[in-house]
Amino acid sequence: xxxxxxxxxxxxxxxxxxxxxxxxxxxxxxxxxxxxxxxxxxxxxxxxxxxxxxxxxxxxxxxxxxxxxxxxxxxxxxxxxxxxxxxxxxxxxxxxxxxxxxxxxxxxxxxxxxxxxxxxxxxxxxxxxxxxxxxxxxxxxxxxxxxxxxxxxxxxxxxxxxxxxxxxxxxxxxxxxxxxxxxxxxxxxxxxxxxxxxxxxxxxxxxxxxxxxxxxxxxxxxxxxxxxxxxxxxxxxxxxxxxxxxxxxxxxxxxxxxxxxxxxxxxxxxxxxxxxxxxxxxxxxxxxxxxxxxxxxxxxxxxx
Length: 304
What we know:
Elements: H1 9-16, E1 20-21, H2 22-44, H3 47-51, H4 59-65, H5 81-100, H6 104-121, H7 128-140, H8 151-155, E2 164-165, H9 168-191, H10 198-205, H11 211-216, H12 220-241, H13 247-268, H14 274-282, H15 288-292, H16 297-303
Antiparallel strand pairs: 1-2
C-alpha cells in the first residue's frame, strides 16, 4: 500500500507568510474606509473650484487632454456642480457601506470605480497617497473584507473556524506593501546622488516642512544619521515582514518600527494622507498572535 503524499513542512511555512487573519482584514477595511471618508470631506470643500465646470478645470478640458489615453471617469459625464456633488455623495455611501461591511464585495468594487473616477477627474491633484489607495482598493476587491466584524457577518454567520485566509489576493496585496517600501528604499539609495543628504535636501526645499523639520535643519549630522537609518530600514523592513523565523514576533516589532518611521515623517514633513494610507497597508501584516494576546481579554470581554 502506497503512503499518501505529505506536504513538505517548508512549503507550509512559506504559505503561512501569505495568510491574513480575518480580524486583520476587518481592521484594514475600517482603516481604508475612514481614510477615504476624510479625503472626500477635504475634496468636497473644493467642489466648485476643482470639480465643476465653473472652476479651473472644466470636464471638456480633461476629456480632450486624455482623449487618446486609457483614462476614464464617470465624473466626466457632466461637469455641473450638482452632478459632481451627487457622485461625491454616491462615493461616500459606497464607502460607508464598506466601513460597516454591508454588501461588502459590491461596496468595495463600487468604491474602487468611483475613487478611480474621482482621481481621474482632477489628475493634477492626485498624490502618492491616492495612487497607493487605489492599488490597495484594487486588490481588496478580491478579498473577503466582510467576513468578520461586519453587517454581512452578522446577517450570514459562518460556521467556519478558520481564522486566516490564503489566496492569490492575500499574496498580491502583501507583496504590494513589500514593494512599496523596498522600491522606495532602492530609489533613495540608488538614484539620489547623496543618500546621506536626502533628508537635509528635502527640508531645505521647505515647501512641506513642519516646525520640527525646520528645527532639525540646525543639526546636519543628525539629519544624515536619520537619512541613512530610514533608507536602511525601508530596505530591510519588507524582508523582516516575511521572516519565516518567529514570524509573529518579528512582524510585530517591524510594524512598530514602521509606525515610528511614519510618526517621524509626520513630525517633520507634511505628506497629506500618505502615512495613514501606508499604515492601512502594513496593518495587513498584523498576525493572529496580536489578536489572540491575553492583554486584549479585558477589552474583548467589555464588547462581547
